[in-house]
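Sequence in, structure out.
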Amino acid sequence: MALSAKDLLGQDEFWIFLFALGVVLLNWPAMALAYSGPTIFGWPSILVYIITVWLLIVAAAYAFDRWHP
């Protein structure tokens, strides 16, 4: 059975999932795959990847904290 976004944010296991996702995305193999070229709009591609992943994790944590009862 598929869960909606509201049902997913209502579960305590979401914190564990968010932590595991951050560990996987900010670990060496995923970061090595993200390094594809020298720059993106003048910024190193690895820096753009790290900032993007970090912002998405922070936004997901904020959304979970605001909507979790």
